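Every protein is a chain of amino acids, and every chain bends into a shape of its own. The protein below has been through that process, and both of its lines are reproduced in full.
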Amino acid sequence: MERVSNVTRADAATAVRNPLAFVAARWTPAPQTVRRAALSALVMSVVIVVTGGAVRLTGSGLGCPTWPKCTADSLTATSEMGVHGAIEFGNRMLTYVLCAAVGWAIIAARSQKPYRRGLTRLGWAQFWIVMSNAVLGGIVVLVGLNPYTVAAHFVATSALIAVATVMWQRTREGDAPPRPLVGKAVQQLVWFMVAAAVLLILVGTVVTGAGPHAGDSSEVERMPVDWETVAKLHAVLAWIVVTLTFALWFALKAVDAPKGPLSRTRELFLILLAQGVIGYVQYFTDLPEILVGLHMFGSALMWIWVLRVLLSLRERPEGTPAVLPAREPDSAGVPVAGPR
C-alpha cells in the first residue's frame, strides 16, 4: 500500500511540474482529434475577428471604459452600461473561449504519438499571440481607441490566423521533408501574391483607421488621411491580388500541376470575387454596418486561402527522415557510431 501511495505522490508531483507531459503519457489522441483541435483554434481566431468587428461597428468599443476590469468598480458589465457594455464585455469573454480552443490544440498536439515538436510549437505560438493581443486590446481601450493601436490589434489577429492555418495544415501532413509540387517560377508567383495580400490587409487597416466607423459614439481620433483615397488604393491592391490569382491558375494549368494547388487557387479566386462585390457595394452604399462586417469576415477567409494556396505547393509524406542511432561512448569516453 505504501508503494502505491508513493507512486501516487510521484504522479501528482509530475502532474504539477509538467501537466502536458502527464496527460501525454496517459492519452494518445486519434489523428482526427488533433486535426479537429487545430481547426477549432482556427475557427475561433476567425470568430474573434467577426465579434471584434461587431464591437467597432456597433459603437461599443468603449462599452467597458477601462481594462482589465469593465469599470473601475466592476469586473463585469453592469445593467446601467446597456447594450454597448454587454457587447464589449461579451467580446472580452470570447477571448477565454479562444484560449480554451488554443489550449485544446496544444494538449492534443503534445499528446500525439509519435511526439511532433514542430506541431506543438505552432500551438504555443498561437497561445503567446493571443496573450499579447489581449494586452494590446486592453491598451486599445485605455488609449481611447487610438486608430494605430486598433490597426495593430487587427494585424496581430491576422498573424494568429496565419499560425492557426499552418498548424491545421500540418496536422494533415507527415513530418518528412517538404517536397515541392511545382517549379520555382510558380512558387515565386505565389510569394508575390502573398506579399500583395499582406499589403492589402495593411492598407485595409488604414481604411478602417481613417473611415467613419470609429468604434464609439464619442470623438475618437482618426488617422489623418483621406479615407476615400486610401479605399481606392485598397481596391487597386485587391485587383492586383485577383490578377495574380488568375495568372497563377493559368500557370498551374500550363504545368499540369496536381489537383490540390488548382483547387485551392480556384477557391481563392471565388472568395476574392465575392469579397470584391461586397467591398464595392459597401463603398457605394455609405458603408452599412452589416456589409462592413461581412467584408471583415471575407478578409479573414481570403487570408486563410492565400496561405492554403501557398501550403498546397508542397507535400509532406507520412513518416520522418531516417535518424542515425545514438552514439555511445567507448571505453575511453569517445563517442562512436552505433551499427548502421
